[in-house]
Each structure stands twice: as structure tokens, then as C-alpha cells.
Amino acid sequence: MSKTTWKRAGVALTAAALVAGLAGCNDDRGDKKAAGGKTGASAPAEKGGDATQVLKAAYEKTSAAKAAKIKATITTQGTPEESGTIEMSGVQGWAPATMDVTMKGSMLGAGTPGAPEQMRVVMLDNAMYMDMGAEQAAQMDGKRWMKMDLKSIAEASGDKALQKQMTGNLDSMNQDPAQQLGLLLESPDLKHVGPEKVNGMETQHYKGTLTFEQMLKTNDSAKVLPKEDYDKLIENVKKTGLKGYDMEIWVNGDNYPARMKLGMKMDAATVHMTMDYSDYGTKSAVQAPPAAETVDLFKMLQEAGAGAGASAGAQG
């Protein structure tokens, strides 16, 4: 595969991971009503009410919806090579985690010879599938889809801690709107901004901030890391200059998030995400692409490694 193809795959995977929350929090819906303890009676979102109570009610209702339509924009500002925008639209499901979205934008290499104008990305059964377009199909016997099975990669590593970390993230892969609400409830400076219109809807606007350490404490998969690895993770993140996350949520009159925003500022780049949600409770009938049109990246790398080993042995 060409360097351009690899770059597009990496960008698409990163974008999907940001929205789906590959590094997000563990979802404890089975045991926890909402972050912050008891649910209690909630004030209607259309009147603002107590921020904690409104977001708790929205958390519960959104968790039960299990799927929604999504339109998202991710903007990165940094070096010329790393700056750009990705827009995506489609369906996102949670419990179980699924996604079927179409991406487009400058970061996918728009205008590059052989690059598709848009890319479809599917997430299902602990794997990501990316439609790499005609360029890959020509190079891979008509197989235009690239599959990345992160669970298999973790299991093949033989590292128990890595397996728990990655599969824990996969079990809760969606940084879905319910989890975003749970995160915002953890913010020590949560506040109600006021009423605003979003896509023609009356909403109530809430905002808060979280440090990286505060967010990591809500991530159960991080708890399996040995202390040395955990400390190294913190150190590496600090080297990027990431101080924390700015979070904003607009809750509509039905107690569903209509819009969410996340901002991350680092020394080398700034990332802004805006996600608009609608049609909560929609059917998330996500299907994997045909096997005959799919190349499994993990298996391909395994076979390449085995072939290289056999060649070296023959020459030895």
C-alpha cells in the first residue's frame, strides 16, 4: 500500500477513535445511574434547572436510547501537514458499540490523486473497517476495505496488561453522548451557561473542564496499567502540553444532548470537535463489509512477518 493510503487510514482511524472514544471512559451503565450518585428528581432541561440534576436525567435517557444519528466536525490546527478538517455523518450506536459514518475533508487528502472524495468507516464487533477507495482496490485484488481488529492485536501481543487495557476500551469503545454527560458531571466547575438555539431547537447550554488526570481516573482500563506504565503515560501526555479538556453540552427539551463540543489544546496543535446528535433511538443496523472485499491488516502483517522469517532462514 502507498504512503498516502497509510496516511488516510491513520487519519480516519484517529478521527473515528476521537468520536467513538477509543481512549474514553469505561461504561458502567450496569451499576451506575449517572456520575455523581443518586439520580433524584430532575428539573426540566428547557428551564435550565440545577445543572447536575438536568445532566443526570439526560444521562439516563441517553443511555437508554442506545443509538442516534451524528454529524461531527473535527478541526486540527498545528503544522501545515497536521492541520485540517474532517466532517463525518452517519449513525453511532452504544451498548453495543457500533458506528457507520462517512468522512470527508482536507485531512483525508482531498485532491490527492487516487484519494477518494469521502471515506466510509464502519465499527462493529471490536473492529474498524475503512473504505480506502479505488487506489487500494487496484493494489489489493479488488479489496477496498481495510480491517483493523484491535482485539486480535492485543491478544497476539501476549501482554496481559495490554490485553485488559485494549479490550476494556473496546468493551466501552463509544465515547457516546451518555458517557460525555457522565464526564461533564465529573467536572469540578460545571455550570449552566443559559438557553440557546441549536439547529432550530431550544436548548440549555452547560460547560465544564477536566484535567487529563481527572479524565484518566474515570477510565477503568487505565487502572490495569502497572504504576511505571501509568506514570510514563502521564509524563508523555504532559510533554505534549495537554492541560485538559474543555467540554460543552446543549440539552434539548426532551432531555437529550443536541450538541457537544470538546476542545484540547497542546503545544503542537489544538483540536476542536463539534458533534450534533438527532433521532435518538434510531435503529443501528451496522453491518461489516463483504469478506471478499476486505483485507485484514493484522493478518496481512502476520503473513508478511512469517514470510520474512522463512526467507531469512533459507538464506542462513
Please give the structural blueprint.
Layout: H1 3-20, H2 51-65, E1 67-77, E2 84-93, E3 98-104, E4 119-124, E5 127-131, H3 134-139, E6 145-149, H4 150-157, H5 160-171, H6 177-185, E7 191-198, E8 201-211, H7 212-217, H8 227-240, E9 244-252, E10 257-265, E11 270-278, E12 294-296, H9 297-315
Parallel strand pairs: 6-12
Antiparallel strand pairs: 1-2, 1-11, 2-3, 3-4, 4-5, 5-6, 7-8, 8-9, 9-10, 10-11
Helix pairs in contact: 2-6, 4-5
Features:
about 325 residues, alpha+beta, outer membrane lipoprotein receptor (LolB), chain A, twelve-stranded mixed sheet, 12 strands, about 35% helix
What does this structure look like?
The chain is of the alpha+beta class and 316 residues long. It is 34% helix and 29% strand. Strands 7-8-9-10-11-1-2-3-4-5-6-12 form a twelve-stranded mixed β-sheet. Helix 2 runs antiparallel to helix 6. Keywords: Lipoprotein. Residues 28-49 are annotated as: Disordered. This is Lipoprotein.
- How much of the sequence lies in strands comes to 25-35%
Strand order of the largest sheet: 7-8-9-10-11-1-2-3-4-5-6-12
Q: Could you state the order of secondary-structure elements as H and E?
A: HHEEEEEHEHHHEEHHEEEEH
The assigned CATH architecture is Clam
